[in-house]
Amino acid sequence: MKRLFYSLLLIFICSCPARAQDVVAITEQTIADIFEQVTAESDEAIDYYSFYEDLMFCARNPINLNQASREELERLPFLSDIQVENIQAYVYQYGPLLTMYELQLIEGLDMTDIRRMIPFVYVGEARITNKKIYLVDLLKYGKNELYFRLDKGLETKEGYQFLPEEDVNSPQTNSGNYLGNQLYHSLKYRFHYKDRILAGITAEKDAGEQFWGSTHKGYDFYSFHAQFNKVGKFRTIVLGDYRANFGLGLVLHSDFGLGKSSYVLNVTPRNSGLKKYSSTDESNFFRGGGATIQLGKFDLTAFYSNKMIDGDTLNGAFPTILKTGYHRTLNELDKKHTVNQQIIGGNATFTNQNFQAGATFVHTLLDNRLVPDKSVYNYFYFSGNKQTTGGLFYRLRWKKLNLFGETAMNDQGALATLNGCTFNPVSQISMVVLHRYYSPEYDTFYASSFSETSRINNENGLYIGTEVRPFRKWKFAAYADSYKFPWPKYGIDEPSLGTDYLFQSDYTVNRDIAMYWRFRYEEKQSNLSATGAVMPVVVPIQKTGFRYNLTYSVGSFSFKNVVEGNLSRRATANRTYGITACQDISYKFTRIPLKADFRYQFFDAVEYENRVYSYEKDVLYAFSIPMYYGLGSRYYLNLKYELNNHLSFWFKIAQTVYTDDRESISSGNETITGNRKTDMRFLLKWEF
Amino acid sequence: MKKNRLLLTMLVLGQALHGQIATVIPSSASIAMTSVADTHSWSAFNNPAMLGYTDKPEFAIQFENRYLLTELSTKSIQFALPTGLLNTGVSFSHFGYSLYHEMLFGVGFARNFSDKFAMGVQFNYYTAFFNASNSYHGAFLPQIGLSVRFSQAFSSGFNTFNPFQSNIQTEFVIKRLPSLFSIGTEYFFSKNFIWRTQVDKEVSSNYRVATGFEYQMLQNFAFKIGGYSSGYLIPCLGVGFKTGAILIDLNCEMHPLLGLNTLAAIKYRFGK
Lengths: 688, 272
Hints:
The complex is a heterodimer.
Chain A: H1 2-13, H2 23-41, H3 48-60, E1 63-64, H4 70-73, H5 81-94, H6 111-117, E2 121-122, H7 135-141, E3 143-153, E4 184-193, E5 197-205, E6 221-231, E7 234-246, E8 252-253, E9 273-276, E10 286-295, E11 298-311, E12 317-318, E13 321-322, H8 330-334, E14 339-351, E15 355-370, E16 384-398, E17 401-410, E18 415-426, E19 429-438, E20 459-468, E21 474-485, E22 496-508, E23 513-527, E24 538-554, E25 557-570, E26 576-588, E27 594-605, E28 612-613, E29 627-628, E30 630-642, E31 647-658, E32 664-665, E33 672-673, E34 676-687
Parallel strand pairs in A: 1-2, 12-15
Antiparallel strand pairs in A: 3-4, 3-34, 4-5, 5-6, 6-7, 7-8, 7-9, 7-10, 10-11, 11-13, 11-14, 14-15, 15-16, 16-17, 17-18, 18-19, 19-20, 20-21, 21-22, 22-23, 23-24, 24-25, 25-26, 26-27, 27-30, 28-29, 30-31, 31-34, 32-33
Helix pairs in contact in A: 2-3
Chain B: H1 2-16, E1 58-66, E2 74-81, E3 87-96, E4 101-113, E5 117-130, E6 135-149, E7 154-161, E8 167-169, E9 174-176, E10 180-190, E11 193-202, E12 207-218, E13 221-229, E14 233-243, E15 246-255, E16 259-269
Antiparallel strand pairs in B: 1-2, 1-16, 2-3, 3-4, 4-5, 5-6, 6-7, 7-10, 8-9, 10-11, 11-12, 12-13, 13-14, 14-15, 15-16
């Protein structure tokens, strides 16, 4: 009764009532918040698609908060571990939620968090979720979607400019050019029945790859997936392409692993088990099948994968696994699918109310030996054709502390361990502390977890993050990370160390106006001497960054302004700077089902050290965080038109103009003559 | 081998480790050494004003092991005696080993003025053994402290150690003694959760900026987390146990270059 009274009271007094949110806007903002920083620091391409699709799927199949498992709540990346724990603890302690407004009574959730959650969750009665599935239901309630996407650059790149007749005496030939045309296109079919059955087919051709000719008969990449959830004793069955994520990612985590971002409390990857793979990323997935069976409080998982991967093989050995997925030239085609990779693995997890523990192992077998070109920094990288890795993980709630960790070891005996705790000492404050130690000798194929770099090895550090909500409209977040690389890294020829600080304050004026300030300082080390020098000289690099972000909406218009700058200094050299500013305008037409987004952005970052990244809106399920380096501007127009309930179109045109007197953009086959780069993108979605 | 390691560590300590302002001044049990505004605990050779808040006699010993080298450890002992007029404290600290060691003796007096503010003064005698002359040399160093309570939840503290920058001059060498100024704040988010900040400036070193949180999770168990920066970022963790009149603090900090620094303190409060 008391709870009902408070709930009703809050409905009346709450000055920021929750209202239906633009799912796409929330999803895009979440991805931007999490990935912008990661993109700037990662040396690998990041697959946003799976992340985007998972969130959009949640929006279409909202989670019942009264029935949600930890794994289900963890699908919402903006919720921290503490918030997930608190939601579950609240439902356990006080019984099912009566209304969404009751979320305000849960510790650690503010209005911003609740607004973000609303499109993805609901409050309802507990239902039986593993009912038998009948074919008639599948046909009647199953949803089908078809996506066709087309991209094209307007300027002709060097790789497409064929010489009319090859001159045998000329150093220029056509042999290194792209075999296909400039079009990128992909076709995706998706089927889902609630969250019980998910299936789909993906086909993709990158720009420069041949679609029909001597090297290709159709698309370059095909993918099929099927996932069945809650089928009898089986929690999950996956067939075709899939991913596996267990523990904290030290053994097996093929999805993107969370790291340092303005979500300072969300630092460890989530234990999501087996899940379908539907992205167009051509490398980071398993192909085969797997199943998770639930036996009381135990979940037992087994999986197998067998697929061909790319590598430059010679005499039964290859130096590195190629992950770009590009097969545009004869040279790239020679390396396509040259190595067979078999993976077998398993996991056992015990889950209790306040305790979870599990064990994971994975064994990989290659039919060629992986032999990296040895140098000092990669001295401990894996070499061979067989690898076994295993690990134990735990999660324990004790009083207000949530303790978690994972310790893993490979067959060389090298160790990696990650341990931490989150806690909520008072309702306005949440904290996390995380220690990691990854031995230089620990190098495994599928690890992805909290780390300064994208590799889980050769690192020792401690991270402390805190989020404070002292007043209703304000939120402060900060982290400090201190780390050490005990062995040389790529670009740092000595053992080195670094520190990283972030401070962000968010101010939500009302439903229509929000802003944040972000300050970041980082110091790490880098080679001053040439890589591989006999007497390396390593110097510190300091980078300071600032960002102001303002979003506001008036009627059908919404606006966003961003000003961002950074200062960088290498050793005792002068400081260099980079700045960017952008204005976004979005307008939703009231009489026609059209939405338009426009951006104008200016950037001035002459030195590469001062490069800036900023995310931009795109067609559905596409997402870009381009790097800006040099002097120039960029603008784009992004349109979405819903023809009817079944058909929708997206179209985007973007142009970058460099004003720093450059005569060409990019290099090699990607070279564009001139100072402009224009891209067009089209997407068609058909729901039936 | 151990000698080489010790010499190297001493060299790095001397040149790079600005955070360890003066090794003979014992670190406090407050997380990240944020003791200048810690109204709950008086630490030897830290802010003497905090002696003014002591309401029962107490006795404490402390051992700090720097980077797992016993030669770099600091040992200290303190005793506080509150009286109606003035609270009195006696403390002693020792750093080093037989060939090189420093000692610090102190007698302090402090008074709490109606719980609005407290002031303290301490008279310290510093002495060090110089192997070159095979003798001890010393100097008197004053210390002054202040603590102001702006509200039940918020207070600030100030401390200066050796403000007149006294040094020791021998026949062969001039030994510079630390001259330290500290200012800090303490904020109670709740009765069980405290946030402290502190800025230190030793005249010839970098600023040291520190912050720390102490969370009294259970009646007899506290969890501490913090960090400080002075050239390097040094994260700190700690726990506190309380059983009757005995308080035990275990803190550690991870220097990215030098490694682990650990501290253990036991305090006995009479009449609790």
